Amino acid sequence: MRFRGLVSGLYRTARVANTISAVASGDPGRMSRRAGNVILGRSLGRAGFWRSLWR
User: What's the chain's Rg over C-alpha atoms?
Assistant: First the structure.
């Protein structure tokens, strides 16, 4: 596994905490919105969209 920097690790932790908070809220609208955002972000990442922004 590759070592991540401090800021990268903190950002990842914040994203996980946001997901946990959305699930724990019990609000179906918030949970589905969060799931949609995660799915969209991951699919864009796999397509290379984020990498193309910084070239």
Answer: 14
